[in-house]
């Protein structure tokens, strides 16, 4: 199975994948209760039988302002987890946008510095690679959260 078609389990409750990997059966198998969709095209939650989907509608280019969503989405993931849910974060390839959101969550709620969060996510899904614009936004987010950069 290729990495593009896999669900990467980052924590007991947080998963990362591409849009291509999502099937109704997989969502049921992994007990996904909430989806964070970081693509430009929304898939109907009714098709997937998921009650809650957050749609960010972000392009994968260095000029896209994904950082505008870091706090909101990290807090949303944390809220779902506190209620006992499981979250899937995905973008088209599961490489840049979705990994950036997962890294931001780990930085904010697991108190990981950027390098630690990046290395952790990469250990679970080798193909991640936030684009240069998203990386710069994560560097700034790390400075905002921790007062310095690693």
Automatic annotation (TrEMBL):
<dbReference type="InterPro" id="IPR052103">
    <property type="entry name" value="Dual_spec_Phospatases"/>
</dbReference>
<dbReference type="InterPro" id="IPR029021">
    <property type="entry name" value="Prot-tyrosine_phosphatase-like"/>
</dbReference>
<dbReference type="InterPro" id="IPR000387">
    <property type="entry name" value="Tyr_Pase_dom"/>
</dbReference>
<comment type="similarity">
    <text>Belongs to the protein-tyrosine phosphatase family. Non-receptor class dual specificity subfamily.</text>
</comment>
<dbReference type="GO" id="GO:0005737">
    <property type="term" value="C:cytoplasm"/>
</dbReference>
<dbReference type="GO" id="GO:0004721">
    <property type="term" value="F:phosphoprotein phosphatase activity"/>
</dbReference>
<dbReference type="InterPro" id="IPR000340">
    <property type="entry name" value="Dual-sp_phosphatase_cat-dom"/>
</dbReference>
<feature type="domain" description="Tyrosine specific protein phosphatases">
    <location>
        <begin position="68"/>
        <end position="125"/>
    </location>
</feature>
<dbReference type="InterPro" id="IPR016130">
    <property type="entry name" value="Tyr_Pase_AS"/>
</dbReference>
<keyword id="KW-0378">Hydrolase</keyword>
<dbReference type="InterPro" id="IPR020422">
    <property type="entry name" value="TYR_PHOSPHATASE_DUAL_dom"/>
</dbReference>
<dbReference type="Pfam" id="PF00782">
    <property type="entry name" value="DSPc"/>
</dbReference>
<protein>
    <recommendedName>
        <fullName>Protein-tyrosine-phosphatase</fullName>
    </recommendedName>
</protein>
<feature type="domain" description="Tyrosine-protein phosphatase">
    <location>
        <begin position="6"/>
        <end position="147"/>
    </location>
</feature>
<keyword id="KW-0904">Protein phosphatase</keyword>
């Amino acid at each position: 199975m290729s990495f593009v078609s896999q669900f990467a389990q980052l924590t007991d409750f947080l998963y990362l994948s591409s849009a291509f990997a999502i099937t109704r059966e997989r969502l049921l198998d992994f007990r996904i209760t909430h989806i964070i969709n970081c693509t430009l095209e929304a898939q109907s939650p009714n098709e997937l039988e998921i009650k809650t989907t957050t749609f960010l509608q972000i392009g994968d280019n260095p000029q896209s302002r994904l950082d505008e969503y870091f706090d909101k989405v990290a807090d949303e993931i944390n809220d779902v987890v506190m209620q006992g849910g499981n979250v899937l974060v995905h973008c088209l390839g599961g490489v840049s946008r979705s990994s950036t959101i997962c890294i931001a969550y780990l930085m904010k709620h697991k108190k990981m510095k950027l390098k630690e969060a990046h290395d952790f996510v990469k250990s679970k899904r080798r193909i991640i690679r936030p684009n240069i614009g998203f990386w710069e936004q994560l560097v700034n987010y790390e400075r905002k959260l921790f007062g310095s950069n690693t």
